[in-house]
Design a protein that fits this description.
Number of domains: 1
Radius of gyration: 16 Å
Distance between the termini: 32 Å
Strand content: over 45%
Strand order of the largest sheet: 2-3-4-5-6-7-8-9
Number of strands: 9
Helix content: 10-25%
Order of helices and strands: HEHEEEEEEEE
Oligomer: single chain
Length: about 180
């Protein structure tokens, strides 16, 4: 998620009278109350250690994941994700509940150390459905950790009198640590 793209998304949303809140992919990076506070030094050091770990493994299980917009050092969200053996997954992210913080999708294994997911959630404008988003992500498994890159498209429904909606593209990264059963 590039800061410039986020700016375009916010300006576009304001121009259309939208203050959309996105379930699991809230584009309001600066407004993520508490997200930075939850990034303890211990957690940051664990996530930094991911760069030196390389081993295959199974994605199935529960993970703690930190999302960062492309080009940013500040997390935009933290989530618990459950990857299921039937190829489905769901996520509970630390975004406001009233804006939507539960999302779901499906995944497939690409090779021994890579998986790809296709993830969906709703966008809200003050509690009213305003659109949806689709996030695609490719993750590299490294034992009890993974790193990935994601692309997210926000699809805002048209706001009368407009007849066409707005689409916004965002990019970012994900870093996950397995939560032991």
């Amino acid at each position: 998620m590039n800061k410039a793209l986020l700016g375009v998304a916010l300006v576009g949303g304001l121009a259309l009278g939208l203050t959309a809140r996105a379930g699991c992919v809230d584009p309001r990076v600066g407004a993520q109350q508490g997200a930075s506070a939850l990034m303890s030094a211990d957690l940051e050091s664990k996530l930094s250690a991911l760069d030196s770990i390389h081993a295959g493994g199974s994605i199935v299980g529960t993970w703690f994941v930190v999302y960062k917009p492309e080009g940013s050092t500040t997390p935009s969200g933290q989530a618990f994700i459950q990857w299921h053996s039937d190829g489905t997954e769901w996520e509970n992210i630390n975004y406001p509940v009233l804006g939507g913080n539960i999302c779901m999708g499906s995944w497939k294994q690409i090779d021994q150390s890579h998986v790809s997911r296709n993830h969906y959630g709703w966008l809200y404008n003050n509690g009213v459905l305003a659109g949806f988003f689709n996030e695609t992500e490719t993750d590299e498994l490294m034992g009890n950790a993974y790193v990935g890159v994601n692309n997210t498209t926000l699809y805002f429904y048209p706001v009368p009198p407009a007849t066409e909606g707005t689409t916004v593209e965002l990019k970012g990264t994900a870093r996950g640590i397995r939560i032991a059963p």
